[in-house]
Specification:
alpha/beta, two-stranded antiparallel sheet, 12 helices, 16% strand
């Protein structure tokens, strides 16, 4: 008996994040068979709650997810295509990847699912072409664009407030049964997708099916963990999950500078600092609150409390919180810069 037909994922725009997702999928063993993802999905909503205000049904675990077995990547320039070919050379036993240059319509036509990873300001030129919009009908579109909302994408695709456009025949308005709206899921992974340790958040449009949502969860579970959130939480989660790897890197870099000033080799200090941060994160994931971890380390009269007091004197706590708030505001503004 023949197996199920091949399912194709097209990625429009394969920059840093798009490449991380592609390479994470290619390097994952779970894309071939496993029904149970290695990491898992965290759903912050109850069954009676919703992603966008209406009752949300939890997807049935017994449903089969139609997993992609072919990949198409569409890039703009020959330089990007050459770079991608070089990077793909290490995936010798992975599923095939077809690189298409500057032909989004053809790439979308061949797809079952489309992941959009272009710059937010390039979204209109990426999916606004008539041929692309037509090719997207009835398909699942997953956006990883910071600041770009589902209604904004629906507006570009001409389906805002009109999920089933009507046509007129002999003066009478008839429903257009040939129109199948694009199902849109908005997701925000982070750059740790490269090492399959991304923290991804996602939300879906009202017409997204449970199988659409489960497919998106499957794709991002292969590169880390997934949390389903409400639309109202998205910009804050974009900052918290998408931007803070840079915050953590800055904090670690500062520790390295201090370690070098104290006579340690930077390469050795980097390993020690990163592993220490990893250990603290693992304690939190095991259920230990951060204040408890801090109190356990900061013994009375010890050296740790002196360092903590210096951080408090320099208002590091408030500065970090303010940076996250500022980052959230900037994420909200990104979608308004579409060209």
């Amino acid at each position: 008996m023949d197996g199920p037909p091949s399912k194709t994922l097209t990625i429009l725009g394969c920059g840093t994040l798009g490449s991380a997702i592609l390479f994470g999928l290619l390097s994952s063993d779970t894309h071939r068979a496993s029904e149970k993802p290695a990491n898992g999905t965290v759903d912050v909503l109850k069954d009676s709650e919703s992603i966008d205000g209406e009752k949300q049904q939890s997807p049935k675990k017994s449903e089969d997810v139609k997993k992609p077995t072919r990949f198409i990547v569409c890039v703009r320039t020959s330089e990007s295509a050459d770079r991608l070919r070089r990077n793909l050379a290490v995936f010798k036993s992975a599923p095939p990847v077809t690189i298409v240059q500057d032909d989004n319509a053809r790439a979308v036509q061949a797809a079952d699912t489309v992941l959009v990873g272009c710059l937010p300001q390039d979204l209109v030129s990426c999916i606004g072409e008539t041929a692309v919009k037509k090719a997207l009908r009835g398909k699942l579109l997953i956006s990883i664009l910071a600041g770009v909302t589902i209604p904004q994408i629906e507006d570009i695709l001409d389906q805002t407030n009109s999920p089933t456009p009507a046509s007129k025949t002999n003066g009478a308005t008839m429903p257009n049964d040939d129109f199948h709206p694009t199902s849109i899921i908005r997701a925000m992974p982070n750059t740790a997708s490269f090492v399959r340790a991304s923290t991804t958040v996602l939300t879906a449009c009202s017409n997204a099916s449970s199988s659409n949502i489960r497919l998106a969860e499957y794709l991002f579970n292969t590169i880390g963990t997934v949390t389903r959130i409400t639309t109202a939480q998205f910009d804050a989660c974009t900052a918290l999950c998408g931007s803070t790897p840079a915050f953590f890197a800055l904090f670690l870099e500062s520790l390295l500078d201090g370690a070098v000033a104290l006579g340690l080799k930077r390469s050795e200090a980097q390993i020690m600092a990163a592993e220490t941060m990893k250990g603290a994160a693992m304690l939190m994931l095991a259920g230990e609150p951060p204040d408890v971890i801090k109190e356990k380390v900061a013994s009375p009269g010890g050296s740790t409390i002196q360092g903590l007091l210096e951080l408090e004197r320099k208002a590091v706590r408030a500065t970090i919180a303010d940076a996250l708030i500022r980052c959230t505001s900037a994420a909200s503004a990104l979608g308004s810069k579409q060209a």
